[in-house]
Amino acid sequence: MNTDPIADFLTRIRNANAANHRVVEIPASNVKKEITKILFDQGYILSYKFDDSTAQGTIKIALKYDKITKEPVIKKIQRISKPGLRKYAGANEIPRILNGLGVAIVSTSHGVMTGKQAKAEKVGGEVLCYVY
After folding, report:
1. 118 pLDDT higher than 90
2. What is the rounded end-to-end Cα distance, in angstroms, of the chain?
3. Burial call 49-59: b when 16+ CB within 10 Å, e when fewer
4. Where on the phi/psi map is residue 100: left (φ > 0), alpha (ψ -120 to 50), or beta?
5. Helix crossing, 30-41 with 5-18: angle to 10°?
6. CB 46, CB 64: distance < 8 Å
7. Is the pLDDT of residue 77 over 80?
8. pTM score > 0.85 for this model?
9. Using an 8 Å Cβ cutoff, are 94 and 119 in contact?
10. CA separation for the pair 128, 55 (Å, rounded)
11. Secondary element (H or E) of residue 41
12. Res. 64: pLDDT tops 80
């Protein structure tokens, strides 16, 4: 049993990047699917596919690497709000990551979205992770 599935999701991506894997498979959940969509929309991953052949389903993520240097596009992916210590931010308190170059992923009452989207919609929520 996994006590923090989002941290496991982020760790699998981090480990696959470190090992220069092209594809990583992760057990699916609705929050993980939303985070995957955000990572794709922001250009951090190449593609993704949801496989619902099993009861829980899996997410297959194709990782993105720089064409010239072969470095991973995701430099750092960090869990912020943990089960033991939740981190919440109001609409005006959502942090900017690397002066806007990174992305804060926030779980709000309007769904999972980036920090910029949450500020635009004037909603706060739980700061799940930072990606840059």
Report:
1. yes
2. 29
3. eeeeeeeeebb
4. left
5. 40
6. yes
7. yes
8. yes
9. yes
10. 26
11. helix 30-41
12. yes
| Average pLDDT of span 30-57 | 96
* pLDDT tens digits for range 86-109: 999 999 999 999 999 999 999 999
| Angstrom distance (rounded) from CA 72 to CA 85 | 29
Asked if residues 33 and 45 have their Cβ atoms less than 8 Å apart, the reply is no
Diameter of the chain by CA atoms?
Answer: 42
DSSP 50-65: EE-SSSS-EEEEEE-B
Pairwise CA distance, residues 8 & 117, whole Å = 25
Please give the pLDDT value at position 1. 64
* Amino acid symbol at 131: V
* CA–CA gap between residue 122 and residue 105 (Å, rounded): 15
The residue whose two tokens read 């985070």 is 35
DSSP 8-class letter at 22: S
